[in-house]
Amino acid sequence: MGEQDEAERRLGITVVGTAQREAWAARVLPPVERLDAGLWSVPVPIPDNPLRYTLSYLIPADDGVVVVDPGWDTDDGWAALTAGLAAAGATFADVTGIVATHVHADHHGMSARLRDRTGAWVGMHPAERDSLPQRTGLLRRADMRAAQARWLRAAGAAEADVAELCGVPADDCEAHDLPDRTPMAEPDVLLHDGDALPVRGRTVRTVWTPGHTPGHICLLEPEAGVMLTGDHVLPRITPNIGLAPDLGGAPLALFLDSLERVARYDEHRSDERSGRLTALPAHEYRFRGLATRARTLQAHHAERCRELLDVVERLGNPTLWEVTKALTWSRPWSEVGPMRMGALAETGAHVRHLVDLGQLIWDGAVPAFGGSGEDVPSRVRRGDPVRSTVA
Q1: What's the confidence (pLDDT) of residue 149?
Q2: pLDDT tens digit string along 107-157?
Q3: Could you give the CA distance from residue 133 to residue 369 in angstroms, rounded to a whole number?
Q4: Short-list 75, 76, 131, 80, CA closest to 101
Q5: Which residues fall within 8 angstroms of residue 254, CB to CB, at 6 or more apart?
Q6: Closest by alpha carbon to 90, among 56, 138, 46?
Q7: pTM > 0.85
Q8: What pLDDT was estimated at residue 83?
């Protein structure tokens, strides 16, 4: 555990879910666990994904059980959720509510199946409801691929990259007949910032934390000393913050502000055992040190912005694609593969943030995911360094 303990010290956290951490290191599913205040942690597998599983949470109340982030919709996932309920002494008849911290498939994918089986209400933030694929006009695979193609071309990607990332020949990328996505569960309950879950016997409040998605929420139960953080704050991984068809505005600025919000909750909570909340993330393992981890993530993005400014300074007037290729990634650019789309979206979010700060300037139309695209890709260059600085 020496190397792991050193890594925890470097991250400024204390791992509480030691069995989860050991399972993560061993690349196996962690156990179903009973947590403080009667909550339960249930790992639900994600097929063919390096994250491996989503940590779904069961919140028992006087009027039934609320399932938070049921997970990816597969038969294996359904079996894991069923086993988790049984371990908690519950059945489907006890499930009265379902909450999605956000609508990514590894969180909200099984909500419709669970609602159909139980009759439970489904809750999420209004902004997340509005980002459901059936509401954004991107439910059809062909429409999504066409939006991706326009975004790639506006960012300066070569046609070979467009073809590879769209998964079809370049000259057919916008018209190829692909199987459509299934509509995701619509909410019955809209959870605004500060709203309590509609349950009896305990008070769990919604904390709106946009950034990773427009309507991402965390769930805070001060009396239990816990915050369910979804994908907003994870102990080791940095969540993807990228420009997306369902997130206008400035996602990175929103994310940084949301980190500040959860840090304040941690600092203002007095827990006799730790002095801090216990963070219950949707991936990896439970930990304490939410405020420190939030500040580490803020520092990470500040450093990323500095690197990006250096890249633009060196390249002069690059396209967004050229900036993305020149940045440091966890592996060489030639090995990033399909994740190039996510890398481009993440770079776009950072560029947008720096444009808003006056550090960069767009030359030409700003690339917009799903926009009309431009014959000549837009480019970025250094702005007036006097206007603002990156902290």
Answers
A1: 85
A2: 999 999 999 999 999 999 999 999 898 887 666 777 778 778 888 888 899
A3: 14
A4: 131
A5: 210, 211
A6: 56
A7: yes
A8: 97
